[in-house]
Fold this sequence. Notes:
Helix content of chain A: under 10%
Number of helices of chain B: 1
Distance between the termini of chain B: 75 Å
Number of strands of chain A: 21
Shape of chain A: flat
Structural class of chain A: mainly beta
Order of helices and strands of chain B: HEEEEEEEEEEEEEEEEEEEEE
Shape of chain B: flat
Order of helices and strands of chain A: HEEEEEEEEEEEEEHEEEEEEEE
Oligomer: heterodimer
Distance between the termini of chain A: 91 Å
Amino acid sequence: MEKKYLIIILIMIFLVAGCKGGKKQTLISDIELQKGFDGLTIELLKNAPPPTIFENSPFPVIIKLQNKGVRDIKKDEGVLSIGVEKDYVKLNLGAFEDNDKISSKPEEDKVIFSLDGKSLINPVGEQEIVELNLETKNVGAQSESRISNVFVVACYEYGTKLGTEICVDTDIHNLKARQKACNAKDLAFSNGQGAPVAITKIETDMLPDIDNNKIKPHFIIHIENKGNGEVIMSGSYDKICSEKSLDYKEFNLLSAKVFLSEIELECILPREVDGKGFIKLKDKKSIVRCTLNKGIDENLGSYIAPLRVELSYGYTFTVSREFTIEKILEY
Amino acid sequence: MIYKKYGKYIFLLILLLALVGCNLLPTAKRGSEAFTGTEGIVMNFLPNRPPDKIIADATQLEIPIMIEVRNRGAFPSSEERAFDRWNENDIIFVSGFDPILFLDWKVDDRSEDTPKALIGRRSLDGKGPLNPEGGYDTIEFVGTLYVDNLKIDRFKPSFLVTACYHYFTRANPTICIDPEPYSLTGEKKVCQVEDITLSSQGAPIAITKVEEEILKESIQFRIHFKNLGNGEVIKLDSLNKCSPDSDEILDRKDIDLVKISNVRVSGGSITGSCKPTDQGYVRLFENEGFVICSMPKRDDVKTAYNTPLFIELEYGYRTSISKTVEIINVPTG
């Protein structure tokens, strides 16, 4: 009997020692923030507005803002423009006191906001709740009800950053009998960089500069708008979310900077606006070509170098909710 | 009763006798076993040097790369061959890193412009009767990354450690010289002319076979050799181009060339007769090569005899190991 108990205890000790148990903790250094295609997200909370409202009644519209991307939307860089049928709905925009993230411009029916993006201390991104007070007006003598909408147009300054490593291959055709640390190859990025405009692919070429015994790294960077809104020119977010007239030329424009080993490359930005170069998206996609024109000595062995791509743009999208204004019937 | 009490001790004693009797216990290596093997300089990274992952939490980050180096071949010989020495072309160096990011290299705590160490300054003698394991040493390379220059969150550089060195392969088989192999007299001979198959000689290039052919006026030896190591053969005169400091770069025509430095029969050199060679070099094709050397028949010798055939090949050799490190740029504060 005693031997049986001894064997059972030994087996239990082995089991306990072997079981790791519990959830594996994710190290802070393992958290990857730069993925996904979300930037700012807007959600109109349930029943705010409610589906049916009586005329001449106040009702709330509660908006949940969240910056699910990586870039911070800094002070005065985010604008919400609230659109209602002014003949049937009145917007009473408050001052949002005691909130350093939200402020308002009642004369323009705008809410100005700033929100931090994802970070190691806040991996989901900053959130804010914006509560608006609206009031229905009369639906008119001839109607018993009216279907109306509230539109929330968001316009904000944003950007995409990609950091990766590429192979600077000084002997791309393997003509030299040199040991290579790496081989140049194209890179694909399918998970996004934590922003609505994503870099999807980087093609790498090493262009020979025979006269100077150098090679010039050349990159073709593929860009795509993966979000649910439209890209606008950087700095024009306030204009887009306003009553000012719009030029189609301000849409689908973004600027790019590319660095190899922290040396800025010369990029071809074909669209010029106010002396600055931009890339135009067509059908939500485009490419940009960048080259290190000063070149790298071809006698150096191949090595891995950091490549950093920064895109700057504005972004806009709209959410809306339908509701019905009911007439109060008095019989 | 005795068996119950002392049974396990009796069992252990029997087991020990069996192990000794069947030569299963390790014994000391005999001297001749030092001249076997197909390796030369062998390198390995020491654990965590460099580590797989480094957190960049300071303005300067030192990346330590520590390797253990073993000489598993027979060169340089610990016997008194005066020219069996490493020279200034025998080096181990680090490459494959971004020269803009990784600066201020140190080699064994000494600041160097390039991360390069001379093999001659290390205890890397070849295997021999007094040193059957071969020489062993460690080298530490430390590079500094200035974190402010790195503006991406994650960076995975690779470090390639390369050894370029000259080496010798020496074989000394006994061959049979029979001036009249087809004699009709039927006399008894001390040896028969036959092809000799060799195994390794304690070097990455091995002499694998010697074929002997008796001609009317001469005796020919067809010597086969093969690169059995895991590195590349480099022309000896171009070994200096392997260095990262060199102004010249190794070319395709500098690869796979072996120098026939010495072939002697009965103490007499026949190196000059060896063909096909180009200034004493033979090219390897698919890691294999051969050379045909000949000696004139001696008029005064009519009977078969055994004699040593000394073959010496000289060449440059290059091997590499690499490791990728993940550097994580975590913002502090």
